[in-house]
Amino acid sequence: MGQYSVETSLYREVTILKDTFFTPPFNVVEVREDKSNPLLEVMIMSSSPGFFNHDHYKIDVNVKKETLLNIQTQSYQRVYDTPDGARQEMNVNIEENAYFSHLPHPSVPHKGAIFNSKNTINLAANSVLVWGEILACGRKLNGESFAFIKYNSLTEIYREGKLFYKDNLYLKPSAIDFKSIGQYEEFTYQANFVSIDPFHSVKEHIELMTTVLAEEEDMIFGVSKLSEDACAIRVLGNSGEQLFIALKKIRIQLDNQANALRKKEIEIKLI
């Protein structure tokens, strides 16, 4: 089993990496350029090219009270021919007045791939989450569009112990034609992006997301309001890199927004 865990803490009002543990193939590296920024940025590096048969990854993230964390990935996540399956479990705990953002690179299931993942995220009343996921149809340039066996990614988000949002992405190409009307149709990539932020109105985030995505060509998207402080978007496109870069623009703006807000709070404390 490959695994890593990350736990944050505060030192002089700046988020630091208090504790981390990882086993092969993972390594956890801080990539924050400005060490004075409250937001801690870390990258998960991996010596493995992707998931192989029987691989099982376990991830634990604990974002402590009043800390800010962004976790980035190094490259596309490939799922190779896995006749017995591969899986990943990710558990995230975001404490009061804390911030967490995570937009991994696209997942690419190869021909014969079987993959299951479960993401469980627990939020406090005033914690912030920015979460994204991008899935490819497979290696389409190799003629492997929807040639995988099964891909299942279940994400459950809880606020104060109650289920707030659930997304069950389940694709089994042998059971349905994903190129048909009402499915992917002419598109080959899809993305899901969720923002939960009690410090800003959902209108602000919807306007930001709509503005960024409306600039993109060969892409369609829809936005759903989940509550007065939360929204989700679903995107279809034909380029994983295009989807990733567009959603990354949104993630970075939300990261910067959280950074700026925390800096103001620190300034007020120092007065």
TrEMBL record:
Main localization category: cytoplasm
Keywords, sorted A to Z: Chaperone, Cytoplasm, Nickel insertion
Transmembrane segments: none
InterPro entries (alphabetical): UreD
GO molecular function (one): nickel cation binding
Pfam families in alphabetical order: UreD (PF01774)
GO cellular component labels: cytoplasm
Subcellular location: Cytoplasm
General function of this protein: Required for maturation of urease via the functional incorporation of the urease nickel metallocenter.
Subunit structure, interactors included: UreD, UreF and UreG form a complex that acts as a GTP-hydrolysis-dependent molecular chaperone, activating the urease apoprotein by helping to assemble the nickel containing metallocenter of UreC. The UreE protein probably delivers the nickel.
The family this protein is said to belong to: Belongs to the UreD family.
Protein known as: Urease accessory protein UreD
Organism: Bizionia saleffrena
Classification lineage: Bacteria, Pseudomonadati, Bacteroidota, Flavobacteriia, Flavobacteriales
